[in-house]
Amino acid sequence: MSLNRLFWLISVALMLIFLALTARIVSSEWGEYRRGARSVETVRLVQLTMIAMEKTSIERGPSNGLMGGESADLPQLSKKLQAAREQTDESIITLLDALRADADVRYAPVIRKIEYVKGALEPARLDVDRQAGLPRSQRSSDDVSAAVNGMINLIPPFVTAVADLTSIAIQSDPELLDGLTGMRVASSLREYAGQVGSKFTAPVVTQRPLTKDEVIEIGKLYGRIEQLRSLLNIQMRAYRNNAAYNAALSELDAQYFGKGLPILGELLQVGLISGGYELTTAELAARYVPPMASILRLRDVILADLVHDAEIRNHQARNYLIATIAMAIAAFVFFFVLMYLVRQRVLAPILRATRLVTGLAVDNLDVKIPEARYQDEIGDMLRALHVLKARSHERLELASERETLIQQLQVSSNTDFLTGVLNRRAFFAHSEQQLAVAQRYKRNLALILLDIDHFKRINDNHGHLAGDSILRNAVQLIAQLLRKVDILARYGGEEFIILLPEADLEQALIVAEKLRATLAGHAIATDDGSQISITASFGVSALAGEENLDHMIRLADEALYVAKNGGRNRVVRAG
Are strands 536-542 and 571-573 parallel, antiparallel or unpaired? Predict the structure, then answer.
């Protein structure tokens, strides 16, 4: 087969492969665009579901107020309740219309849950109206509690509906996970805040103390509220730099946790003792409900950011789709023209050489270069690649040797040649970092300066080799008693310095005393076989404020001087 025919066969095959890959990429980008659009739609459905749940929850406020209101206030309270019920009905109808407008079969379970809530609203409201129609003296605590619980029991289907829609949205766009979780946490926080307030309705209506079961239930709700607040800190780490979120979170802490929740704390104290609350359920709602609005504002901030980011990603996906289609068309045209311009004896060698050179360029020396079979330009190129591969081997070996040498030099420059511990320069480099960390995070930091007693006498009596052996063995004894985080260095001559992170002055004194006793209790064998007993004097200082490392060393050195003058073989604290 001629090279020209082979070129055309290969070109046609490559064109078919190119078309298949292009179709696959375009299909993938189209799917990404559709998923992005779907995620935005689902997020908005999550919003509508949360609004419907919110309106249903808010309706409990005027319901509780009506059941605990005085006869003179009933017309005004009834008017408020009617307005709240109309808002609830409107939000549920809007949600159902939005769900039914979409043909997605995954929404069917959600629709059934919302329809159940819509049907259960009427009997729950009838219970509320029945209690409100009785004279206040005839309203029993159990019946009022049952009416309150009837409204509360409408919320769980909303919660599961939100969970279903959230799962659908995350399947379309996994990056929505944090934001949707934050919205769910905020909505749950609003619901539990409403429930704990509703727990006081029956006691306030009948002006009686709280029962044991009510106290337990209120305690559980308090715990859930605190857990949800903590969960916001954990789950919403990605929003730490979001100014609007931080402002809404601060408002939540100031309004609900600073003003709203303490109101219930006061009622709880009264309910545990006497039950004389001195307010109606309407007055309780007027004081407690407004601070709860900060929870919904936090949820709306998360929602706005979530929708904004989802829309941006959707627009990016659309732009990528358009760019992919445009690039595919351009590449197809270019490829078609190229087939007519390039012949196989030019194209094939260039493609082969490109693959080989690319492999060598990234130091992939396992690339197999075929042997040249012909004395032509292709053969010359393959022989040149063999030479290039050999030169690359040499270059990598030289680079490896240079890296090893640099590492050896770095270790040598930081290590004391005699004892093997850090030298003075390396100690300051490491210790400055520890000092900065300790000062920034208000942590303890201590320093020990020690000096081998009568070291000059040892050198004079036994020789410098024995003195060197003493220093090496002393370092080994000291290092065995230190933690991995402690920094030991030779400060100069027979003087050593130790930095103790996360240790205060008293702890450092204990370490120094242990080192002193260990050195004093060991006889060190020198190279000539003789046994030499040594002692050391210690000065200890600790970080007390914003002082620098030199100041800590100076304090330890002054303490060491006192230890030397006081008879040696002792530990003295700074000051």
Answer: parallel
Decide if 218 contacts 266 (C-beta within 8 A): no
Instruction: Report residue 274 as tokens.
Output: 């006497």
Which helix (H) or strand (E) is 569 found in, with range?
none
Tell how many helices (H) and how many strands (E) occur in the chain.
Answer: 18, 7
Residue 26, pLDDT score:
66
CATH 3.30.70.270 fits 424-573, yes or no: yes
pLDDT tens-place string over residues 385-436: 677 767 777 777 776 677 766 565 565 578 988 998 999 999 999 999 999 9
Separation CA 131–CA 147 (nearest Å): 8
Q: Letter for the amino acid at 252?
A: L
| Cα 165 from chain centre | 25
Where along the chain do its domains lie? 22-306+314-322, 348-355+362-413, 424-573
Q: How far is CA 493 from CA 161, 450, 467, 520, 525, in A?
A: 76, 11, 10, 19, 20
The correct CATH number of 348-355+362-413 out of 2.60.40, 1.10.8, 3.30.720, 1.10.10 is: 1.10.8
pLDDT band per the 50, 70, 90 thresholds, residue 306 = confident
Residues 6 or more apart in contact with residue 534 via CB below 8 angstroms: 452, 453, 458, 470, 474, 519, 520, 524
Distance CA 17, CA 331 (A): 13
For range 514-534, the mean pLDDT: 87
Mean pLDDT of 473-502: 94
Tokens 């309740």 locate to 81
What residues contact residue 436 under an 8 Å CB cut-off, 6+ apart? none
Rounded mean pLDDT, 72-100: 87
Query: Residue 65: what pLDDT?
Result: 80
The closest alpha carbon to 62, from 49, 48, 76, belongs to 76
pLDDT tens digits for 400-409?
Answer: 677 766 565 5
Residue-averaged pLDDT of the chain: 83
- The gap from C-alpha 335 to its chain's centroid, in whole angstroms, comes to 47
Task: Please give the helix or strand (H or E) that residue 452 lies within, else none.
Answer: strand 445-452
CA separation for the pair 522, 536 (Å, rounded):
12
Helix axes 281-341, 177-198, angle to 10 degrees: 170
Question: Does position 465 have pLDDT exceeding 80, yes or no?
Answer: yes
